[in-house]
């Protein structure tokens, strides 16, 4: 454990989300002081009572608040995401802009969780950090714009690390993942699983604690990294939906039916539901395999943090309140 004088500090933006809370846990386990900016610190404390967090009152949409919270920190983790896949341009762009300004002002390294939305049909089945980025959806275009903002910021003193990953699953992912928001019902026993894709097509999954541990390890190496670095996290590459279903059934101890997401019905609802429109836009990612090549990450870390699938699923379902903890 580092002494108080040498202990590094990380500002987590979005600490009550799945990614933010997981990174906070991994950094705290490595001796970092965790600071959080939150519009309601009392509510945040109630959600994360076991964490030793330095809470700061403020709004991530307010640049003054973000810069004030970032004073004296070594790392800024941008774990913010508009809820329910909506209002991305209205919220995501200005919040990231504030984090970039804060990173430059404080000298801290910015960490940003990337995803696969910025890859279009021309990317191929396996993509590395230099594969073509030609998004075909509005959210993909926004994610590309966000990464371009980060790259431009790095050229002007806001050093950054981007870790791209597949679909999240894990504790705390109720609203920020397909798994927790569409495939199962948090807080209830697993009676069935609604699968968004074609069951026979391979899909990439990222267990949140493994992604967080990756971020923590990179954070400890960040002083030796270039001003901007992008890494792909491989995670669990499952050849079909049956692999995930088998893990779920082993955890709950019984058979669970697999149902497919009713895309035709969702399409009919798009004129009346903004959420349905946003989800429909991402359907293409469930219709073809898209695997992230993590060779670069392996060269830097030597290995990728990887929790076995059954254990990761057990932690996920317990964390989402879908199975007893004993």
Automatic annotation (TrEMBL):
Family matches, as SUPFAM superfamilies: NAD(P)-binding Rossmann-fold domains
Molecular function terms, GO-annotated: aldehyde dehydrogenase (NAD+) activity
GO cellular component: a single term: cytoplasm
Organism superkingdom: Bacteria
Entries under InterPro entries matching the protein: Epimerase_deHydtase (IPR001509), NAD(P)-bd_dom_sf (IPR036291), NAD(P)-dependent_oxidoreduct (IPR051783)
Pfam families linked to this entry: Epimerase
Domain called NAD-dependent epimerase/dehydratase: residue spans: 10-226
Gene3D superfamilies named among the record's database cross-references: NAD(P)-binding Rossmann-like Domain (3.40.50.720)
PANTHER family per the UniProt record, alphabetical: NAD(P)-BINDING DOMAIN-CONTAINING PROTEIN-RELATED (PTHR48079:SF6), PROTEIN YEEZ (PTHR48079)
The protein, known as: Nucleoside-diphosphate-sugar epimerase
Lineage: Bacteria, Pseudomonadati, Pseudomonadota, Betaproteobacteria, Burkholderiales
């Amino acid at each position: 454990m580092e002494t108080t004088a040498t202990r590094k500090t990380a500002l987590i933006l979005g600490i009550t989300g799945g990614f933010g809370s997981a990174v906070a846990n991994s950094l705290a386990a490595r001796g970092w002081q965790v600071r959080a900016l939150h519009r309601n610190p009392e509510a945040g404390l109630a959600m994360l009572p076991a964490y030793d967090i330095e809470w700061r009152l403020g709004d991530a949409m307010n640049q003054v608040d973000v810069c004030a919270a970032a004073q004296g920190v070594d790392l800024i983790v941008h774990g913010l995401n508009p809820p329910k896949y909506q209002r991305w341009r209205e919220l995501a762009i200005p919040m990231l802009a504030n984090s970039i300004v804060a990173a430059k002002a404080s000298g801290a390294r910015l960490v940003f969780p990337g995803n696969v939305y910025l890859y279009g049909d021309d990317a191929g089945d396996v993509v590395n950090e230099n594969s073509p980025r030609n998004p075909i959806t509005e959210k993909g275009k926004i994610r590309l714009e966000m990464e371009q903002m980060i790259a431009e910021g790095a050229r002007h003193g806001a050093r950054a690390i981007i870790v791209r990953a597949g679909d999240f699953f894990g504790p705390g992912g109720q609203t920020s993942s397909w798994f927790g928001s569409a495939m199962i019902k948090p807080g209830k026993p697993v009676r069935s699983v609604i699968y968004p894709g074609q069951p026979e097509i391979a899909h990439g999954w990222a267990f949140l604690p493994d992604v967080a541990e990756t971020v923590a390890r990179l954070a400890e190496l960040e002083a030796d990294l270039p001003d901007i670095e992008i890494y792909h996290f491989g995670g669990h590459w499952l050849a079909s939906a049956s692999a995930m279903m088998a893990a779920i059934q082993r955890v709950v101890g019984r058979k669970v039916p697999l149902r497919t997401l009713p895309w035709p019905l969702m399409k009919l609802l798009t004129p009346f539901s903004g959420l349905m429109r946003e989800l429909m836009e991402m359907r293409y990612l469930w219709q073809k395999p898209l695997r992230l090549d993590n060779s670069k990450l392996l060269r830097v870390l030597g290995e990728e943090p990887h929790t076995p699938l059954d254990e990761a699923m057990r932690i996920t379902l317990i964390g989402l309140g879908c199975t007893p903890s004993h």
